[in-house]
Amino acid sequence: MSDEEVMNNDDVDDMFDSPPDEPESPAVDSSEIDENIPAVHGVGLEVSAILGTAQMPVSQLLKMGRGAVVELDKYIGDTIDISINDQMIARGEVMIKEDRLCVEIIEMIKRTGD
């Protein structure tokens, strides 16, 4: 049995206090903080979204120069894994918004017991 379960969309919506387009207020009233949740503001986390992979011989890699293009095994709209500190926390969809490459979170992964 897996130690991960997929959260439904209502669970994901409940995780966010404000709409994604509104910036969060940097000031936090200490009376609003749940004493059961440890303070994590200012803690650095490494977020990874692997956009794809490619295999090639080292000889081909050594021949590459500036402007070389490496084709990956994923396409716009494909699902990818999103990790924080090497722990998978969500799945996302690769997309382009305006002129930027983006990843839209489509499901959160809830860890159950460790």
Automatic annotation (TrEMBL):
It is a peripheral membrane protein. GO terms for biological process: bacterial-type flagellum-dependent cell motility; chemotaxis. Keywords: Cell membrane, Chemotaxis, Flagellar rotation, Membrane. It holds the Pfam family FliMN_C. Residues 40-109 form the Flagellar motor switch protein FliN-like C-terminal domain. Residues 1-24 have a biased composition (Acidic residues). One of its GO terms (cellular component) is bacterial-type flagellum basal body. One of its GO terms (molecular function) is cytoskeletal motor activity. Its main location: membrane. It is found in: Cell membrane. InterPro entries: FliN-like_C (IPR001543), FliN/MopA/SpaO (IPR051469), FliN_T3SS_HrcQb (IPR001172), SpoA-like_sf (IPR036429). SUPFAM superfamilies: Surface presentation of antigens (SPOA) (SSF101801). It comes from the Bacteria. Residues 1-34 are annotated as: Disordered. Belongs to the FliN/MopA/SpaO family. This is Flagellar motor switch protein FliN. It comes from Kiloniella litopenaei. The lineage of its organism: Bacteria, Pseudomonadati, Pseudomonadota, Alphaproteobacteria, Rhodospirillales.
